[in-house]
Amino acid sequence: MGKQITVPFGPQHPVLPEPIHLDLVLEDETVVDAIPSIGYVHRGLEKLVEKREYPEYIYVAERICGICSYIHSNTYAECIEQIMHIEIPERAQYLRTIWSEYSRLHSHLLWLGLFADGMGFESVFMNAWRLREHILDDMEATTGGRVIQGVCKVGGVRKDIAPEKLDEMLKGLKNLEHELHDLTDVFLNDASVIHRLKGAGVLKTEDAYYLGAVGPTARGSGVPIDIRQTGYAAYGKINFKPVVESSGDSYARCAVRAKELYTSIDIIEQCIKKIPEGPVDVKVTGAPDGEFFARAEQPRGEVVHYIKGNGKKNLVRHRVRTPTFTNIPPLVTLLKGCQLADVPIVVLSIDPCIGCAER
Amino acid sequence: MAQEQVTVPISVGELVERTAQMKKNGCRLVQIGCTKVGDDYEINYLFDKEFALTNLRITVKQDTVIPSVSSVYFGAFVYENEIHDLYGIAVTGMNIDFGGHFYRTTIKTPFAVTITKEGS
A304 vs B30: CB contact, 8 Å cut-off? Predict the structure, then answer.
Protein backbone atom coordinates (compact mmCIF):
# COMPACT_ATOMS: atom_id res chain seq x y z
CA MET A 1 0.00 0.00 0.00
CA GLY A 2 1.36 3.41 -1.00
CA LYS A 3 1.28 6.53 1.12
CA GLN A 4 -2.25 7.95 1.42
CA ILE A 5 -3.08 11.62 1.10
CA THR A 6 -6.46 13.38 1.34
CA VAL A 7 -7.42 15.87 -1.35
CA PRO A 8 -10.41 18.16 -0.74
CA PHE A 9 -12.77 18.43 -3.72
CA GLY A 10 -15.43 21.13 -3.72
CA PRO A 11 -17.71 22.64 -2.50
CA GLN A 12 -16.58 25.15 -5.15
CA HIS A 13 -15.23 23.51 -8.29
CA PRO A 14 -15.43 24.48 -11.98
CA VAL A 15 -17.57 21.45 -12.89
CA LEU A 16 -19.90 21.71 -9.90
CA PRO A 17 -22.89 23.99 -10.35
CA GLU A 18 -23.86 23.32 -6.73
CA PRO A 19 -21.95 22.75 -3.50
CA ILE A 20 -20.87 19.27 -2.43
CA HIS A 21 -17.57 18.60 -0.73
CA LEU A 22 -15.65 15.33 -1.03
CA ASP A 23 -12.61 14.30 0.96
CA LEU A 24 -10.81 12.11 -1.56
CA VAL A 25 -8.34 9.65 -0.04
CA LEU A 26 -5.69 8.91 -2.67
CA GLU A 27 -2.92 6.39 -3.16
CA ASP A 28 -0.80 7.94 -5.88
CA GLU A 29 -3.50 9.13 -8.34
CA THR A 30 -6.09 6.49 -7.43
CA VAL A 31 -9.09 7.26 -5.21
CA VAL A 32 -9.35 4.63 -2.46
CA ASP A 33 -12.06 6.33 -0.39
CA ALA A 34 -14.38 9.34 -0.62
CA ILE A 35 -16.21 11.02 2.27
CA PRO A 36 -19.07 13.26 1.13
CA SER A 37 -20.15 16.42 2.87
CA ILE A 38 -23.23 18.51 2.13
CA GLY A 39 -25.25 20.94 4.22
CA TYR A 40 -24.17 24.24 2.68
CA VAL A 41 -27.60 25.14 1.26
CA HIS A 42 -30.14 23.53 3.61
CA ARG A 43 -33.27 25.72 3.45
CA GLY A 44 -35.66 23.77 5.68
CA LEU A 45 -38.47 24.06 3.12
CA GLU A 46 -40.35 21.08 4.58
CA LYS A 47 -40.79 23.03 7.81
CA LEU A 48 -42.91 25.62 5.98
CA VAL A 49 -45.94 23.30 6.04
CA GLU A 50 -46.49 24.66 9.54
CA LYS A 51 -46.94 28.20 8.17
CA ARG A 52 -48.50 27.62 4.74
CA GLU A 53 -51.84 25.93 4.16
CA TYR A 54 -51.70 22.82 2.00
CA PRO A 55 -53.17 24.35 -1.22
CA GLU A 56 -50.64 27.21 -1.26
CA TYR A 57 -47.73 25.05 -0.08
CA ILE A 58 -47.57 23.55 -3.59
CA TYR A 59 -45.69 26.71 -4.65
CA VAL A 60 -43.06 25.91 -2.01
CA ALA A 61 -42.90 22.26 -3.11
CA GLU A 62 -42.30 23.38 -6.69
CA ARG A 63 -39.35 25.50 -5.58
CA ILE A 64 -37.49 22.56 -4.03
CA CYS A 65 -35.65 22.32 -7.34
CA GLY A 66 -35.04 24.78 -10.15
CA ILE A 67 -34.86 22.02 -12.77
CA CYS A 68 -37.42 19.34 -11.93
CA SER A 69 -39.69 21.92 -10.32
CA TYR A 70 -42.81 20.84 -12.19
CA ILE A 71 -42.52 17.19 -11.12
CA HIS A 72 -42.17 18.21 -7.46
CA SER A 73 -45.48 20.08 -7.65
CA ASN A 74 -47.06 17.18 -9.54
CA THR A 75 -45.94 14.60 -6.94
CA TYR A 76 -47.03 16.80 -4.04
CA ALA A 77 -50.48 17.22 -5.62
CA GLU A 78 -50.80 13.47 -6.30
CA CYS A 79 -49.89 12.72 -2.68
CA ILE A 80 -52.63 15.02 -1.34
CA GLU A 81 -55.10 13.63 -3.90
CA GLN A 82 -54.38 10.05 -2.78
CA ILE A 83 -55.02 10.93 0.87
CA MET A 84 -58.22 12.84 0.04
CA HIS A 85 -59.41 10.27 -2.56
CA ILE A 86 -59.63 12.92 -5.28
CA GLU A 87 -60.01 11.64 -8.83
CA ILE A 88 -58.67 14.24 -11.24
CA PRO A 89 -60.02 14.52 -14.82
CA GLU A 90 -58.34 12.37 -17.46
CA ARG A 91 -57.31 15.40 -19.50
CA ALA A 92 -55.44 16.75 -16.48
CA GLN A 93 -53.61 13.43 -16.14
CA TYR A 94 -52.41 13.69 -19.75
CA LEU A 95 -51.40 17.32 -19.35
CA ARG A 96 -49.41 16.43 -16.25
CA THR A 97 -47.65 13.69 -18.20
CA ILE A 98 -46.83 16.03 -21.09
CA TRP A 99 -45.33 18.66 -18.79
CA SER A 100 -43.43 15.99 -16.83
CA GLU A 101 -41.76 14.80 -20.04
CA TYR A 102 -40.99 18.34 -21.16
CA SER A 103 -39.28 18.75 -17.77
CA ARG A 104 -37.23 15.60 -18.42
CA LEU A 105 -36.23 16.87 -21.87
CA HIS A 106 -35.07 20.22 -20.58
CA SER A 107 -33.25 18.65 -17.62
CA HIS A 108 -31.43 16.06 -19.74
CA LEU A 109 -30.46 18.66 -22.35
CA LEU A 110 -29.18 20.92 -19.60
CA TRP A 111 -27.14 18.04 -18.16
CA LEU A 112 -25.79 16.94 -21.55
CA GLY A 113 -24.59 20.51 -22.08
CA LEU A 114 -22.92 20.66 -18.66
CA PHE A 115 -21.39 17.23 -19.20
CA ALA A 116 -20.00 18.31 -22.58
CA ASP A 117 -18.61 21.45 -20.95
CA GLY A 118 -17.02 19.27 -18.25
CA MET A 119 -15.22 17.31 -20.98
CA GLY A 120 -14.16 20.46 -22.84
CA PHE A 121 -16.72 20.33 -25.69
CA GLU A 122 -17.76 23.99 -25.66
CA SER A 123 -19.69 23.93 -28.93
CA VAL A 124 -21.63 20.79 -27.92
CA PHE A 125 -22.51 22.52 -24.66
CA MET A 126 -23.92 25.48 -26.58
CA ASN A 127 -25.77 23.27 -29.03
CA ALA A 128 -27.44 21.28 -26.22
CA TRP A 129 -28.60 24.46 -24.53
CA ARG A 130 -29.76 25.90 -27.85
CA LEU A 131 -32.04 22.88 -28.31
CA ARG A 132 -33.19 23.19 -24.69
CA GLU A 133 -34.51 26.66 -25.50
CA HIS A 134 -37.17 25.10 -27.79
CA ILE A 135 -38.42 23.07 -24.83
CA LEU A 136 -38.43 26.06 -22.50
CA ASP A 137 -40.28 28.12 -25.12
CA ASP A 138 -43.06 25.53 -25.20
CA MET A 139 -43.13 25.34 -21.40
CA GLU A 140 -43.50 29.11 -21.25
CA ALA A 141 -46.14 29.18 -23.98
CA THR A 142 -48.27 26.52 -22.28
CA THR A 143 -47.77 27.31 -18.59
CA GLY A 144 -46.47 30.88 -18.42
CA GLY A 145 -43.15 29.91 -16.83
CA ARG A 146 -39.84 28.60 -18.15
CA VAL A 147 -38.50 26.72 -15.11
CA ILE A 148 -41.06 27.48 -12.38
CA GLN A 149 -44.43 26.81 -13.99
CA GLY A 150 -46.99 27.05 -11.16
CA VAL A 151 -49.46 25.18 -13.34
CA CYS A 152 -50.15 22.15 -11.16
CA LYS A 153 -52.62 22.29 -8.28
CA VAL A 154 -54.37 19.90 -5.95
CA GLY A 155 -57.32 18.63 -8.00
CA GLY A 156 -55.83 18.99 -11.48
CA VAL A 157 -54.01 21.70 -13.41
CA ARG A 158 -54.55 25.45 -13.76
CA LYS A 159 -54.22 25.71 -17.55
CA ASP A 160 -55.29 23.78 -20.60
CA ILE A 161 -53.42 23.52 -23.91
CA ALA A 162 -55.40 24.43 -27.04
CA PRO A 163 -55.57 21.80 -29.84
CA GLU A 164 -53.71 24.13 -32.25
CA LYS A 165 -50.89 24.50 -29.77
CA LEU A 166 -50.73 20.72 -29.29
CA ASP A 167 -50.35 20.33 -33.09
CA GLU A 168 -47.63 22.96 -33.08
CA MET A 169 -45.84 21.11 -30.26
CA LEU A 170 -45.95 17.88 -32.26
CA LYS A 171 -44.27 19.58 -35.22
CA GLY A 172 -41.70 21.19 -32.94
CA LEU A 173 -40.86 17.81 -31.39
CA LYS A 174 -40.36 16.26 -34.85
CA ASN A 175 -37.84 18.99 -35.69
CA LEU A 176 -36.19 18.61 -32.29
CA GLU A 177 -35.88 14.84 -32.76
CA HIS A 178 -34.15 15.41 -36.08
CA GLU A 179 -31.68 17.86 -34.53
CA LEU A 180 -31.08 15.63 -31.51
CA HIS A 181 -29.49 12.95 -33.67
CA ASP A 182 -26.47 15.14 -34.33
CA LEU A 183 -26.17 15.97 -30.64
CA THR A 184 -26.59 12.48 -29.19
CA ASP A 185 -24.29 11.03 -31.85
CA VAL A 186 -21.42 12.89 -30.16
CA PHE A 187 -22.22 11.44 -26.72
CA LEU A 188 -22.83 7.91 -27.99
CA ASN A 189 -20.23 7.49 -30.76
CA ASP A 190 -17.47 10.08 -30.59
CA ALA A 191 -14.12 8.33 -30.04
CA SER A 192 -12.79 10.85 -27.50
CA VAL A 193 -16.03 10.74 -25.47
CA ILE A 194 -15.91 6.95 -25.39
CA HIS A 195 -12.24 7.02 -24.41
CA ARG A 196 -12.99 9.53 -21.63
CA LEU A 197 -16.06 7.79 -20.17
CA LYS A 198 -15.79 4.04 -20.71
CA GLY A 199 -14.69 2.30 -17.54
CA ALA A 200 -14.74 5.51 -15.46
CA GLY A 201 -16.70 5.27 -12.19
CA VAL A 202 -18.11 1.77 -12.44
CA LEU A 203 -21.13 0.92 -10.25
CA LYS A 204 -22.02 -2.78 -10.22
CA THR A 205 -25.66 -3.85 -10.56
CA GLU A 206 -25.96 -5.26 -7.04
CA ASP A 207 -24.26 -2.21 -5.51
CA ALA A 208 -26.57 0.13 -7.43
CA TYR A 209 -29.65 -1.67 -6.14
CA TYR A 210 -28.72 -2.06 -2.49
CA LEU A 211 -27.02 1.34 -2.17
CA GLY A 212 -30.29 2.95 -3.23
CA ALA A 213 -29.29 4.30 -6.67
CA VAL A 214 -32.18 5.64 -8.74
CA GLY A 215 -32.78 7.10 -12.18
CA PRO A 216 -30.08 6.97 -14.87
CA THR A 217 -27.53 6.12 -12.15
CA ALA A 218 -29.41 2.87 -11.46
CA ARG A 219 -30.48 2.18 -15.04
CA GLY A 220 -26.91 2.71 -16.27
CA SER A 221 -25.94 -0.18 -13.99
CA GLY A 222 -28.62 -2.52 -15.29
CA VAL A 223 -31.25 -1.86 -12.58
CA PRO A 224 -34.52 -1.25 -14.46
CA ILE A 225 -36.17 1.00 -11.84
CA ASP A 226 -38.44 3.55 -13.48
CA ILE A 227 -41.35 4.76 -11.34
CA ARG A 228 -43.30 5.77 -14.45
CA GLN A 229 -44.02 2.05 -14.78
CA THR A 230 -46.32 2.27 -11.74
CA GLY A 231 -48.72 4.18 -14.00
CA TYR A 232 -49.18 7.47 -12.12
CA ALA A 233 -50.61 10.44 -14.07
CA ALA A 234 -51.32 9.04 -17.57
CA TYR A 235 -48.25 6.77 -17.78
CA GLY A 236 -50.46 3.71 -17.31
CA LYS A 237 -52.07 4.45 -20.70
CA ILE A 238 -48.79 5.00 -22.56
CA ASN A 239 -46.47 2.42 -24.10
CA PHE A 240 -42.81 2.86 -23.26
CA LYS A 241 -39.85 0.90 -22.03
CA PRO A 242 -37.23 2.21 -19.58
CA VAL A 243 -33.80 2.77 -21.12
CA VAL A 244 -31.34 0.42 -19.42
CA GLU A 245 -27.59 0.01 -19.96
CA SER A 246 -25.45 -2.61 -18.30
CA SER A 247 -21.83 -1.46 -18.09
CA GLY A 248 -22.38 0.77 -15.00
CA ASP A 249 -19.74 3.33 -16.00
CA SER A 250 -19.99 7.04 -16.80
CA TYR A 251 -20.61 6.24 -20.46
CA ALA A 252 -23.64 4.10 -19.56
CA ARG A 253 -25.17 6.84 -17.41
CA CYS A 254 -24.62 9.33 -20.23
CA ALA A 255 -26.08 6.93 -22.82
CA VAL A 256 -29.23 6.39 -20.71
CA ARG A 257 -29.92 10.13 -20.62
CA ALA A 258 -29.17 10.60 -24.31
CA LYS A 259 -31.56 7.78 -25.30
CA GLU A 260 -34.24 8.91 -22.84
CA LEU A 261 -34.64 12.09 -24.84
CA TYR A 262 -36.25 10.02 -27.60
CA THR A 263 -38.42 8.11 -25.10
CA SER A 264 -39.72 11.41 -23.72
CA ILE A 265 -40.56 12.69 -27.22
CA ASP A 266 -42.37 9.44 -27.97
CA ILE A 267 -44.38 9.66 -24.71
CA ILE A 268 -45.41 13.26 -25.43
CA GLU A 269 -46.45 12.32 -28.97
CA GLN A 270 -48.58 9.45 -27.64
CA CYS A 271 -50.16 11.77 -25.07
CA ILE A 272 -51.00 14.41 -27.66
CA LYS A 273 -52.63 11.80 -29.87
CA LYS A 274 -54.62 10.24 -27.01
CA ILE A 275 -55.55 13.25 -24.86
CA PRO A 276 -59.34 13.38 -24.36
CA GLU A 277 -61.52 16.48 -24.26
CA GLY A 278 -62.90 17.61 -20.93
CA PRO A 279 -62.26 19.65 -17.81
CA VAL A 280 -58.78 20.00 -16.33
CA ASP A 281 -59.60 20.26 -12.64
CA VAL A 282 -62.10 19.36 -9.94
CA LYS A 283 -63.18 21.38 -6.93
CA VAL A 284 -61.36 20.44 -3.74
CA THR A 285 -62.86 20.98 -0.30
CA GLY A 286 -61.68 19.92 3.13
CA ALA A 287 -58.18 19.01 4.20
CA PRO A 288 -56.09 15.82 4.09
CA ASP A 289 -56.47 13.44 7.03
CA GLY A 290 -54.09 10.53 6.66
CA GLU A 291 -50.72 9.76 5.17
CA PHE A 292 -49.23 8.60 1.88
CA PHE A 293 -45.90 8.06 0.14
CA ALA A 294 -46.18 9.36 -3.43
CA ARG A 295 -43.44 8.57 -5.92
CA ALA A 296 -42.59 9.88 -9.36
CA GLU A 297 -39.75 9.56 -11.86
CA GLN A 298 -37.82 12.78 -12.03
CA PRO A 299 -35.02 13.31 -14.59
CA ARG A 300 -32.54 12.23 -11.90
CA GLY A 301 -34.68 9.33 -10.69
CA GLU A 302 -37.30 8.35 -8.16
CA VAL A 303 -38.55 11.12 -5.88
CA VAL A 304 -40.62 10.39 -2.76
CA HIS A 305 -43.06 12.85 -1.21
CA TYR A 306 -44.42 11.76 2.18
CA ILE A 307 -47.35 13.70 3.56
CA LYS A 308 -49.15 13.31 6.87
CA GLY A 309 -52.22 15.39 7.62
CA ASN A 310 -54.65 15.55 10.51
CA GLY A 311 -57.67 17.12 8.84
CA LYS A 312 -56.42 20.67 9.29
CA LYS A 313 -55.26 23.06 6.56
CA ASN A 314 -51.66 22.88 7.76
CA LEU A 315 -49.99 19.52 7.21
CA VAL A 316 -48.30 17.66 10.06
CA ARG A 317 -45.38 16.64 7.86
CA HIS A 318 -44.14 16.93 4.32
CA ARG A 319 -40.96 14.99 3.76
CA VAL A 320 -39.19 14.79 0.40
CA ARG A 321 -36.51 12.28 -0.52
CA THR A 322 -34.92 13.56 -3.69
CA PRO A 323 -32.99 11.41 -6.19
CA THR A 324 -29.63 13.09 -5.57
CA PHE A 325 -29.92 12.47 -1.81
CA THR A 326 -30.15 8.72 -2.35
CA ASN A 327 -27.52 8.79 -5.12
CA ILE A 328 -24.84 10.08 -2.70
CA PRO A 329 -23.95 6.64 -1.22
CA PRO A 330 -23.61 5.13 -4.75
CA LEU A 331 -21.40 8.11 -5.69
CA VAL A 332 -19.09 7.33 -2.78
CA THR A 333 -18.81 3.74 -3.97
CA LEU A 334 -18.31 4.38 -7.67
CA LEU A 335 -15.53 6.92 -6.99
CA LYS A 336 -13.37 4.21 -5.40
CA GLY A 337 -10.81 3.06 -7.93
CA CYS A 338 -11.12 6.19 -10.11
CA GLN A 339 -8.18 8.29 -11.17
CA LEU A 340 -8.12 11.76 -9.59
CA ALA A 341 -8.36 13.37 -13.04
CA ASP A 342 -11.61 11.51 -13.69
CA VAL A 343 -13.33 12.60 -10.46
CA PRO A 344 -15.00 15.75 -11.89
CA ILE A 345 -16.56 13.88 -14.80
CA VAL A 346 -17.58 10.92 -12.63
CA VAL A 347 -19.28 13.22 -10.09
CA LEU A 348 -21.09 14.98 -12.94
CA SER A 349 -22.21 11.64 -14.36
CA ILE A 350 -24.80 11.17 -11.57
CA ASP A 351 -26.23 14.63 -12.38
CA PRO A 352 -26.02 15.90 -8.79
CA CYS A 353 -28.57 18.50 -7.70
CA ILE A 354 -27.55 19.51 -4.21
CA GLY A 355 -30.06 22.32 -3.71
CA CYS A 356 -32.75 19.75 -4.41
CA ALA A 357 -31.10 17.17 -2.13
CA GLU A 358 -30.93 19.46 0.87
CA ARG A 359 -34.27 21.18 0.37
CA MET B 1 -53.07 5.18 -9.80
CA ALA B 2 -52.56 4.12 -6.18
CA GLN B 3 -49.21 2.52 -5.42
CA GLU B 4 -49.34 -0.44 -3.05
CA GLN B 5 -47.96 0.44 0.38
CA VAL B 6 -48.26 -1.05 3.85
CA THR B 7 -47.06 0.27 7.22
CA VAL B 8 -45.83 -2.18 9.87
CA PRO B 9 -45.25 -0.82 13.40
CA ILE B 10 -42.23 -2.46 15.06
CA SER B 11 -40.22 -1.93 18.23
CA VAL B 12 -36.78 -0.31 18.34
CA GLY B 13 -35.32 -3.63 19.48
CA GLU B 14 -36.55 -5.37 16.33
CA LEU B 15 -35.27 -2.71 13.93
CA VAL B 16 -31.92 -4.08 12.78
CA GLU B 17 -33.16 -7.66 12.52
CA ARG B 18 -36.28 -6.69 10.55
CA THR B 19 -34.20 -4.47 8.28
CA ALA B 20 -31.77 -7.32 7.63
CA GLN B 21 -34.77 -9.51 6.80
CA MET B 22 -35.97 -6.93 4.26
CA LYS B 23 -32.59 -7.01 2.55
CA LYS B 24 -32.59 -10.80 2.58
CA ASN B 25 -35.98 -10.65 0.85
CA GLY B 26 -34.47 -8.53 -1.93
CA CYS B 27 -35.89 -5.16 -0.91
CA ARG B 28 -34.29 -1.81 -1.69
CA LEU B 29 -34.08 0.88 1.01
CA VAL B 30 -36.06 3.81 -0.42
CA GLN B 31 -35.74 6.27 2.45
CA ILE B 32 -35.75 6.83 6.19
CA GLY B 33 -37.73 9.82 7.44
CA CYS B 34 -38.87 11.22 10.77
CA THR B 35 -42.17 12.86 11.72
CA LYS B 36 -42.90 14.66 14.99
CA VAL B 37 -46.34 13.67 16.24
CA GLY B 38 -47.10 15.38 19.55
CA ASP B 39 -44.26 14.47 21.90
CA ASP B 40 -43.40 11.33 19.93
CA TYR B 41 -41.34 10.80 16.81
CA GLU B 42 -42.37 8.36 14.10
CA ILE B 43 -39.42 7.09 12.09
CA ASN B 44 -40.35 5.42 8.79
CA TYR B 45 -38.01 2.92 7.12
CA LEU B 46 -39.39 2.55 3.60
CA PHE B 47 -38.52 -0.43 1.39
CA ASP B 48 -39.42 -1.28 -2.20
CA LYS B 49 -39.61 -4.53 -4.05
CA GLU B 50 -41.08 -4.55 -7.55
CA PHE B 51 -42.83 -1.21 -6.88
CA ALA B 52 -44.62 -2.42 -3.71
CA LEU B 53 -43.72 -0.38 -0.62
CA THR B 54 -43.27 -1.72 2.90
CA ASN B 55 -42.86 0.82 5.67
CA LEU B 56 -41.35 -0.33 8.97
CA ARG B 57 -42.25 2.26 11.62
CA ILE B 58 -40.74 2.80 15.03
CA THR B 59 -42.21 5.35 17.44
CA VAL B 60 -39.69 6.86 19.83
CA LYS B 61 -39.19 9.65 22.35
CA GLN B 62 -36.66 12.47 21.96
CA ASP B 63 -34.17 10.77 24.26
CA THR B 64 -34.45 7.29 22.71
CA VAL B 65 -31.20 6.01 21.24
CA ILE B 66 -31.83 4.10 18.04
CA PRO B 67 -29.44 1.64 16.42
CA SER B 68 -28.08 2.39 12.96
CA VAL B 69 -29.07 0.14 10.08
CA SER B 70 -26.06 1.28 8.03
CA SER B 71 -24.39 -2.08 8.69
CA VAL B 72 -27.23 -3.62 6.65
CA TYR B 73 -27.78 -0.87 4.07
CA PHE B 74 -24.59 1.20 3.62
CA GLY B 75 -26.55 4.17 2.27
CA ALA B 76 -28.62 4.57 5.45
CA PHE B 77 -26.01 6.93 6.89
CA VAL B 78 -27.35 9.94 4.96
CA TYR B 79 -30.84 9.52 6.45
CA GLU B 80 -29.61 8.75 9.97
CA ASN B 81 -27.31 11.77 10.06
CA GLU B 82 -30.18 13.90 8.77
CA ILE B 83 -32.53 12.67 11.52
CA HIS B 84 -29.87 13.33 14.13
CA ASP B 85 -29.18 16.87 12.91
CA LEU B 86 -32.78 17.96 12.32
CA TYR B 87 -34.54 16.18 15.20
CA GLY B 88 -31.77 15.60 17.73
CA ILE B 89 -32.40 11.87 17.96
CA ALA B 90 -29.24 9.90 18.73
CA VAL B 91 -28.27 7.09 16.36
CA THR B 92 -25.51 4.68 17.38
CA GLY B 93 -23.20 2.68 15.15
CA MET B 94 -23.39 4.71 11.93
CA ASN B 95 -20.77 3.76 9.33
CA ILE B 96 -20.16 7.46 8.57
CA ASP B 97 -21.00 9.70 11.52
CA PHE B 98 -20.82 13.43 10.80
CA GLY B 99 -21.12 14.22 14.51
CA GLY B 100 -23.92 16.75 14.06
CA HIS B 101 -22.33 18.51 11.05
CA PHE B 102 -24.24 16.90 8.18
CA TYR B 103 -26.41 20.02 7.88
CA ARG B 104 -25.28 23.49 8.82
CA THR B 105 -28.32 25.02 10.53
CA THR B 106 -28.58 28.34 12.37
CA ILE B 107 -30.53 26.74 15.22
CA LYS B 108 -29.83 23.31 16.63
CA THR B 109 -32.26 20.47 15.77
CA PRO B 110 -34.73 22.84 14.04
CA PHE B 111 -37.32 20.19 13.23
CA ALA B 112 -37.71 19.15 16.88
CA VAL B 113 -39.69 22.33 17.58
CA THR B 114 -43.03 23.31 16.07
CA ILE B 115 -43.49 26.78 14.64
CA THR B 116 -46.96 28.27 14.89
CA LYS B 117 -48.55 30.11 12.00
CA GLU B 118 -47.87 33.39 13.78
CA GLY B 119 -44.17 32.54 13.87
CA SER B 120 -43.66 31.86 17.59
Answer: yes
